Amino acid sequence: MIYIDPPYNTGRNLIYKNDFSETTAEFLERSGQLGDEGGKLVANPETSGRFHSDWLSMMFQRLRVAKKLLAKDGVLVCAIDENEFGTLSVLLKEIFSGSAWEHAYVTVVHNPRGQQGANFSYVNEYLIFVFPSGTKAIGDRKIDDEDVSWSQFRNWGGESERTDAKNCFYPVLVKDGKIVGFGDVCPDDFHPKQTEWNSDIAYVYPIDNVGIERKWRYARQSVDGISTMLRAKRSGSGYQIEIGKTFGLYKSVWTDKRYDSNEYGTKLVNSLIEGSGFTFPKSLWAVYDPIAAVTWNDPKAIVMDFFAGSGTTAHAVMQLNADDGGNRQFIMVQVPAPIDADLPPFKRGFTTIAEISKERIRRAGKKILAGACHTDWNRDVGFRVLKVDTSNMQDVYYRPDQIDQKDLLAAVDNIKPGRSPEDLLFQVLVDWGVDLTLPIKRETVQGKTVFFVDGNALAACFDTGVTEALVKELAGREPLRAVFRDNGFVSDAVKINVEQVFRQVSPGTDVKSI
Ligand SMILES: C[S@@+](CC[C@H](N)C(=O)[O-])C[C@H]1O[C@@H](n2cnc3c(N)ncnc32)[C@H](O)[C@@H]1O
User: Fold this and answer.
1) Residues 212, 266: one domain?
2) Going by CA atoms, what residue is nearest to atom 25 of ligand 1?
3) How do residues 249-259 score in pLDDT, each as one tens digit?
């Protein structure tokens, strides 16, 4: 799933502007992937003459990438307000075009007090859902107990007696007011009371108030499938069993108080990070519910957000996992938008929005762990932080005829100065397509630092002075992949022998040096 909440193009917010007329080189330079670090934040004022097209150009590139990244059964959810709702919905229809995609528009009341306009007080914004058509992409919503219409699980009227369907006469087991299971179909000569007690478990049978043995609405073999629709209600010294529709389709207008971005966004983020400076982060629940709706059948889903802001999406993913025992993962992307030096968060040591996002996720994780959590949950609130940077390798732009002898020594090290072993390790993981979330262990082998990724998925040593003894020891561990620094070997002879050593000791290992 991809959830995004882009800058709404209100004319006031600052965005990184992507000019569609700029060249790739200019874009790389401005976005910090080449040359000076960091692009420039610019306002996109309504008077710019290209107000919508500037914003749409910025969105177009990102949505094209989103389409590539989405899983086959993936769903894209975009939050937007009235400023760009029209243009964004047309853009989405253009990118996710044809009958393969369905587009749905949900109104969310996020500001019940209203934002005063000249003619209307705006209380709502929108969620645009884009999903593969012809599939059940959106799960059902849980209906609150007080909104469910409950009725007797026991049949009444014609053909409702025990003898009409013997498989429908069995006990419903209740403990402390909760249904905990179902007993076997009763033999014909067994005639219990409506509620029988066996220590603290009540066995409830479909017997009516005048003692007539009736039947449950579902036979024993099918009752497990609808057990979430049942509840036990205390009655005299026993229980009555009731059935109600506890799940239903999501409506296209969401009015619940919990979508209020002031109460469950601004105040919530400020309660985690006092003076965070975020004026309108999303309500936690306005992000939680779309994630729950989309990942209902995939508790291991990956949820991506490339306008992370204060990190509400990560918070919502962790909260949902804590509630239902799932193991969803999140990928948050946030440009290092600088914070003004005279704003409170800057004075608290946060220099970029990304710094605030990370701290919010850390604190949200701690808070969730301290609260009630599903017993099956793995309690994983950890995350890794990676920054996009230029290559670790030295830029080699010279033509042979421009090189002179004194430049040769400068070319001995092919790695840029200041790059850490972790920088090199993650480059290798990306190059090899190894999952960046795998556990990494650092060990000292023959006096050198070696990283082991996921046990033996990869062994990497970027130290200098690597000896044959170290190479042999690593080969002995038979990793799937092994990597060294090109100029890291103690001698040319060791470097030449590496492949040979691995071929003999661990022929299955893919060896490379960078
Ligand atoms: C509306 S906020 C997201 C708020 C977030 N959903 C939350 O609840 O905190 C939009 C984010 O997009 C970032 N942004 C602005 N222009 C951008 C651009 N051109 N590319 C990527 N991110 C941008 C801003 O730094 C901001 O954090």
Assistant:
1) no
2) 337
3) 999 999 999 99
